[in-house]
Amino acid sequence: MRKAICFGEVLWDIFPSGKVIGGAPLQVAARLSSLGVPSRIVSKIGNDAEGRTLLQNIQNLNLTGVYVKIDQNFPTGEAIVHFDDNGEAVYDVKSPAAWDNIDLSTEIEDAVGAADIFVYGSLAARSDVSRKTLYNLLEIAKYKVFDVNVRKPFCDMDEIIKLMRKADLIKLNEAELRYLAKHLGADNESLELNILFLSEYTETAQICVTRGTNGAVLLTGEQLYSHPGFEVDIVDTISSGDNFLAALLSKIMDCETEEDYNEALTFANALGAVAATKKGPTSKISKDEVLQLIQGQLS
């Protein structure tokens, strides 16, 4: 059975309507666990009421292990969320936070070394301590998955490039791909050409680009796979990308044939779409719901 470790931020996403638990690594770990991939989260919370409540919520997610330590110097993380004129979420991620201070331990090194999948993002590299820990763990990890997050002001392009070059799989959205490709000197209008450019530039064999309601494209080796997405009644898209990534990771390491990769991409798109029909980042999603959506498209 595959096992996963997700490294980085755990925090409260604070909306005008209230707060919910957040952080991409946490959401990916929670969904992976629900899909039968035992997963653990490595992070930190503050020694405060918000941290204690957050930890209780994390423990209720049925993760197989939680390496969430208490930091005595920094508060539990928060991100203030509002929406722009296009309805896209904009995050004000507070700094510093406890997850900026994730230090290395033998316990964490052993866990990462034993895991099959190691998921990390660019936000976790915004501080010296967590960044140093991350790079140490990347030397130990087996299959390394970089979830790109181009989020200003925490957008150090040199750091993002370094982290991409450490990855076996890079996951990003279409806007992030265009931004990175242009920054790196590519002059392509084509999504596929930008993916191939980024793969060659970073020497990364697998790249997955999510396209919102238009589905996703996956490069593995020299083969491109695509899926047009699913039409659903959207309620909340905040965690769709994280749910998509978890679903893809639950399948991709066992893929051998073109059919396998197409099925993995279909499953990931379907689960991400189902997540968008539900409120909240860690809503319950059954495999039956996902399979019904897939069968509905095929029929």
From TrEMBL:
Protein keywords: Kinase, Transferase
A GO molecular function held by the record: kinase activity
Coiled-coil regions listed: none
PROSITE patterns assigned to the protein according to its UniProt record, in alphabetical order: PFKB_KINASES_2
Domain Carbohydrate kinase PfkB: 19-285
One Pfam family hit: PfkB
Assigned protein family: Belongs to the carbohydrate kinase PfkB family.
Protein name (database record): Fructokinase
Organism: Soonwooa buanensis
